[in-house]
Specification:
single chain, 205 residues, alpha+beta, 5-stranded mixed β-sheet, two-stranded antiparallel ribbon, 7 strands, 24% strand
């Protein structure tokens, strides 16, 4: 059932310019907190944007205006990665529905390829971001996955006009063994330091 729902939602995004737009139509059993969570906003912002008198009283077919998107490209990238294996399909809206190049020979381009991948993920799939850095239109990520077994991965997203248009990734089996320097695949600092040395470090690389 989950696979059918995922592919159906991807299809809606491909063929409807209204999918994941700035409005949301309330469905049966919807709760305002859940709508806010799935659309990466807050109950408070929804209440203010839609002049809702009582947050506990929304009705079927009520049209809610979504607050203006304020997430950075880093935050969008983390949302996409950490939505894998969950029922939260909202972050798919951060992928350009008309241009998405997947630099992985095992995954097809476009939302069709992304949807096909998501639809075959095992139920125990999880994804957790460890490090994320943004420069210009690129976001670089270091992630821990349970993706057909424990994995560690590097992901790069390229954005155009706030939407993901390209993705590169490289996965390896997560190992408990330390390397000769006594380091693991995930440990170490996750905070960017020595910003003043960025140009010098790039030249060295």
């Amino acid at each position: 059932m989950k696979r059918i729902l995922v592919l159906g939602l991807i299809g809606m995004m491909l063929f409807s310019s209204l999918a994941f737009a700035d409005e949301y139509i309330v469905k049966e059993d919807d709760k305002l907190w859940k709508i806010a969570e799935d659309n990466h906003t807050t109950v408070e912002d929804l209440v203010e944007e839609n002049d809702i008198k009582d947050p506990n009283m929304i009705y079927i077919n009520q049209v809610l205006t979504m607050p203006q998107e304020t997430l950075t490209n880093k935050e969008k990238s983390v949302a996409v990665i950490e939505s894998l294996g969950t029922d939260n399909l909202g972050p798919i809206a951060y992928i350009n529905p008309n241009k998405y190049i997947q630099h992985n020979l095992g995954v097809a381009d476009g939302l069709e390829g992304f949807g096909a991948l998501v639809s075959i993920l095992p139920e125990d799939t999880t994804a957790k971001n460890i490090r994320v850095f943004e420069e210009g239109d690129y976001v670089f990520m270091h992630n821990e996955y349970n993706f057909f077994g424990p994995k560690v991965g590097f992901d790069i997203f390229r954005f155009e006009d706030g939407l993901i248009v390209e993705h590169w990734d490289n996965l390896a089996v997560l190992s408990a063994e330390m390397n000769p320097s006594g380091r693991g695949q995930l440990d170490g600092t996750a905070i960017l330091k020595d910003i003043d040395k960025t140009a010098e470090n790039k030249q060295a690389v």
